[in-house]
Amino acid sequence: MLRGDKVGLRARHEEDIPILRAELYDDVVNASRAEGGPWRPITPGSKDPRLVVDDKNQGLVQFSVVELDGGTLIGTATLWGIDTHNRFAHIGLGLLPSSRGKGYGTDVVAVLCHYGFIVRGLQRLQIETLADNAAMLRSAERNGFVREGLLRSSAWVMGEFLDEVLLGLLAQDWKQESKQVKKQVKKQVAEV
Ligand SMILES: CC(C)(COP(=O)(O)OP(=O)(O)OC[C@H]1O[C@@H](n2cnc3c(N)ncnc32)[C@H](O)[C@@H]1OP(=O)(O)O)[C@@H](O)C(=O)NCCC(=O)NCCS
């Protein structure tokens, strides 16, 4: 399992599937906003690739996210579109409604960066999110992602076209960011 400060990223377990289906994918608005495609119901027991992991797919790594304290399932995290030639991938995450706004999203992004840059040796990570998704934008920017572009009217979501923001983070900037955070922490500790 990969560990952050508050969350763990582990393999998908069979018992995660009904919870994720009910709380993330059966929610039409959440799914329409997060997935970049039309919502469709997932039949219980189906092998939908968002829920049932295909370990042979080398371009995609899917995690279940759990609280480190107690191991409760709180969501999903994904490294997708892994391009081993250009050493680049996208990240995605979705938390159960009761687990949002508690700092878990920021920690999940941090763990995905560690996985992408350190475990997988990637050079660049990318996020696309709706321009009004303040929590996702903030979770990304807190980890050093920078806004690289605005994709105007790129997403059809529940009856309207919305803009998306493209954010990117390079390995060298992430390391610098981590060093700066460590320096700040050392300084704060020294001042106490
Ligand atoms: C987007 C998501 C992953 C963010 O995770 P989270 O745990 O809710 O976010 P955090 O608690 O780490 O908060 C991150 C920052 O956003 C802010 N924030 C959280 N919820 C917010 C909201 N509803 N509106 C505005 N700001 C918000 C927090 O205050 C925090 O800011 P700070 O770092 O300045 O304190 C989560 O809300 C989620 O799963 N949403 C639904 C699915 C989704 O949108 N996925 C992303 C698709 S690209």
Short description:
This protein has 192 residues and is α+β, with helices and mostly antiparallel strands. It has helices at 16-25, 28-35, 104-119, 134-142, 171-191, and strands at residues 2-3, 7-10, 60-67, 73-83, 88-95, 124-130, 146-157, 160-170.
- Return the CATH architecture: 3-Layer(aba) Sandwich
Can you count the beta strands?
Answer: 8
Contiguous uncertain segments of 5+ residues: none
Please compute the radius of gyration using only Cα atoms: 17 Å
The portion of residues forming beta strands comes to 25-35%
Count of discrete alpha- or pi-helical segments spanning 4 or more residues: 5
What do we call the CATH topology?
Aminopeptidase
Class inferred from helices and paired strands? alpha+beta
The structural domain count equals 1
Q: Report the bound ligands by name, code or SMILES.
A: coenzyme A
Largest sheet: 8 strands, mixed
